[in-house]
Amino acid sequence: MSSLLNAHDITVKYGGHLVVDHVSFELNRGEVMAIVGPNGAGKSTLMKAVLGLIPCEGRVHWHEDVRIGYVPQHLNFDRDFPITVEELFALKITTKHVQRETKRLLEEVHAGHLAGKLLGSLSGGEMQRVFIAYALANDPEILFFDEPSSGIDVTGEETIYALIHELSEAKKLTIVLISHDLDIVYEHATSVLCLNRRMVCHGVPRVALSASNIDKLYGKHTGVYGHEHSHHDV
Amino acid sequence: MDMSTLITMFDFVALPFMQRAFVGILILALLCGVFGVFVILRRMAFFADAIAHSSLAGIAIGILLGISPNIATLAASLLVASGIAFLMSRTKQSLDTIIGIAYAIALSVGVMLISISRGVAVNINSFLFGDILSVDWKMILTMAIVTVFVLAILYKYWRAFVLMSLQSDLAAVQGIKVNRMEWVFMLLLAASVAVGIRIAGIILIGPLLIIPAATAKNVSRSLRETVFLSVIFSMISGTLGLFASYVFNVPSGPTIIIASGLLFFASLIKK
């Protein structure tokens, strides 16, 4: 496997306060990496630092000319913004046939019917699909998801993860996602990075997410323990 | 009303100063209509107002030094916009705090300069509330050039401006230099405000930017439609306001704003 991203000693401070503390990791082509940790652990900050959206100390080395897709937390959008889904896609698509390409991308996430709708009129789940399709424009090699299930109900959440899984298989995409749900990590991720300001563990989920590491990550008596199974039985 | 009264009422159409005013208001409506959409989407109405109020200092300096007030206004607006953008990148204060500070200082400097100079007060009133009827062809040409320039840049960087207004992180990941484009946007806004002051006045150029755009946003089903309707509403209120100001012999700036205000309330009914 070849390395797409090498992050070394990433440190982020907000007003003298350490938010991410000397985190290093490597990301290989085809990997599905989950970043997990409690609220305020610096998960989104780490992702933004790697993407160059906020200043950080340390080194981020990308493989040459990597095409990146990013799906931010959808709650950050102003729902009053008068823009249709198709108009949104026209802001990224570089081919001549914007309409056709938009339709194709939306169909990949089973949302072809949303092209003419106003962005602000979509439900949480629909909005998430639209932004996944948007991230897929211009054929990215790596996709970043910041809490893809935030603001979506449980059924919608499972569908979104199933969709991410489907896309990663079909397109051989490399994926980095932030999740708070360890079940999702066991089921979909090939590696996990546990973060609580510092890196608590990193590796294959079944090994890295040991009971002691989970205790370190979330604190003791959280009632979250390692899973023996690899599928949902809910 | 007989025919001759009606003809007399529309006599003004033949008056050269009314023709210039009409061309001027249409150009300004085009500029404000398009740009206003971005001002409201980026929530920069306060910034536009602040730039307008700050330009009083430029006007005063221009009059004192014998520089054309149009050039001085443009220079002052660009300077204050750059100052605000610079302070934004250097402090942790919020945008509205910085605007509040810059605006108050520039306005105070303007008032101070005006009060120490003599005989200027007569001119100042037209800068405060606009004096569209005194607009000459030279001013119209300046407005046309600035309008073409601003709209051309807006068109060229349309993707960047829309995307960073919607979600700046998404824009940055797409390779857009968000900080640089913020500067460009502020400078364009400053230039638009500066050319609009002569017609709408310092007090009313801000509302002229935001009211037609807000009206369009109320009734539109897409961004394209919002921009198009914003220009149309801007032109309608400009034309109605101009004619009303002539017929009732009142200043043009307020009548234009009242006309656009009426359209805004009408759009609320539709919504």
Furnish the topology, listing elements before pairings:
The complex is a heterodimer of chains A (234) and B (271).
Chain A: E1 3-14, E2 17-28, E3 32-36, H1 43-50, E4 57-62, E5 68-71, H2 85-89, H3 98-108, H4 124-136, E6 142-145, H5 154-171, E7 174-178, H6 182-188, E8 191-196, E9 198-203, H7 205-208, H8 211-218
Parallel strand pairs in A: 3-7, 3-8, 5-6, 6-7
Antiparallel strand pairs in A: 1-2, 1-4, 8-9
Helix pairs in contact in A: 3-4
Chain B: H1 3-9, H2 16-41, H3 45-65, H4 69-90, H5 95-116, H6 121-129, H7 137-156, H8 158-166, H9 168-173, H10 178-219, H11 223-247, H12 252-270
Helix pairs in contact in B: 2-7, 2-10, 2-11, 3-4, 3-5, 3-10, 4-5, 4-10, 6-10, 7-10, 10-11, 10-12, 11-12
Report on the structure:
The complex is a heterodimer of chains A (234) and B (271). By secondary structure, chain A is of the alpha/beta class. Chain A is 32% helix and 26% strand. Chain A is built from eight helices and nine strands. Chain A has helices at 43-50, 85-89, 98-108, 124-136, 154-171, 182-188, 205-208, 211-218; strands spanning 3-14, 17-28, 32-36, 57-62, 68-71, 142-145, 174-178, 191-196, 198-203. In chain A, β8 (191-196) and β9 form a beta hairpin. Mean pLDDT of chain A is 85; it is low at 224-234. Chain B is mostly helical and 271 residues long. Chain B has helices spanning 3-9, 16-41, 45-65, 69-90, 95-116, 121-129, 137-156, 158-166, 168-173, 178-219, 223-247, 252-270. In chain B, α4 (69-90) runs antiparallel to α5 and α7 (137-156) crosses α10. The mean pLDDT of chain B is 86. Chain B is built from twelve helices and no strands. Chain B starts with a helix and ends with a helix. The radius of gyration of chain B is 19 Å and the shape is globular. The chains are: A alpha/beta (234), B mainly alpha (271). Chains A and B meet through β5 of A and α8, α9 and α11 of B.
